[in-house]
Write a structure and sequence with these properties.
Helix content is 74%, strand content 2%. It has one domain. With 258 residues, it is an all-alpha fold. It contains 9 helices and 2 strands. The chain has a two-stranded antiparallel sheet with strand order 1-2. Helix 8 packs antiparallel against helix 9.
């Protein structure tokens, strides 16, 4: 399919076609329907998998599903214990959800770039992006949700006045209040921005490389796509891990009551 589209509209048109989302609306209220659809499907897959593992859990010889679920839970639980120093029943389930959901987002990048767009074209869908983490709207939505939790717990643990004092009086004391406030605001705003852009940038670049490989002659594609796919498995896992760990660290800082 890549060679046919390439011949019809050129490499630039092929790349633009694959990077254009299926959207509804205009301006600020534009909805990326493909991002919402695949995010919901992958989220449902995550819930179904752990629900199935919980229902079939046994104290006898565990099956493959239970073993894998327990491995994931133990892995995330160890990371939370190492990074989070407060007391909360939310953090470990949140960390597990973020790690698995972001990983599933990223994993969609390993499917051949023309598979889902071809299926979409058969049912009349012109544009289709299947990797939610290559959509800046999705990564910012996730990071802003984490940011809201950071602010919530900062106020809950420290109290409104304690949080305000942290913004105004640290690190240089009350005499440099405007400078303290500016530094603190930059520090806080940088958290969701860095979370969103790091995930988006790495996955967008990876997706673009897969698209460029698909533009090459068919006999060259396997030589490059397979090694890049193997390397990309490390990237998608690492990016999910980083997003999870930074979320836990930021929430741990929010739970510190000075």
């Amino acid at each position: 399919m890549a060679s046919e589209v390439h011949a019809a509209e050129g490499a630039t048109g092929y790349i633009i076609h694959h990077l254009t989302p299926l959207h509804f609306g205009e301006g600020f209220w534009t909805l990326h329907l493909d991002t919402l659809f695949f995010s919901a499907v992958l989220g449902g897959l995550f819930v179904w998998f752990f629900k199935t593992a919980a229902e079939k859990a046994t104290s006898e010889v565990p099956g493959l599903v239970q073993n894998f679920a327990e491995l994931l839970i133990e892995f995330v639980d160890n990371q939370v214990k190492d990074s989070f120093h407060g007391h909360s029943k939310l953090i470990a389930p949140l960390a597990l959800t973020i790690f698995c959901w972001v990983f599933l987002w990223n994993f969609m990048d390993l499917f051949p770039v023309d598979i889902f767009p071809l299926i979409g074209s058969l049912i009349g869908i012109e544009y289709l992006r299947v990797v939610p983490s290559t959509d800046l709207n999705a990564t910012f939505a996730m990071s802003i949700s984490v940011f809201c939790l950071i602010i919530f717990y900062s106020i809950k643990i420290k109290g409104p006045w304690g949080f305000a004092k942290e913004l105004m009086f640290q690190p240089f004391g009350p005499w440099l209040l405007p400078f303290n406030l500016l530094l603190k605001l930059v520090e806080e705003i940088a958290k969701p921005i860095s979370l969103a852009l790091r995930l988006f940038g790495n996955l967008y670049a990876g997706e673009l490389i897969f698209i460029l490989i698909a533009l090459l002659p068919w006999y060259i594609q396997p030589v490059l796509s397979f090694p890049w796919a193997i390397f990309h498995i490390l990237i998608i896992t690492l990016q999910a891990f980083i997003f999870m760990v930074l979320t836990v660290v930021y929430l741990s800082m929010a739970h510190e009551d000075h």
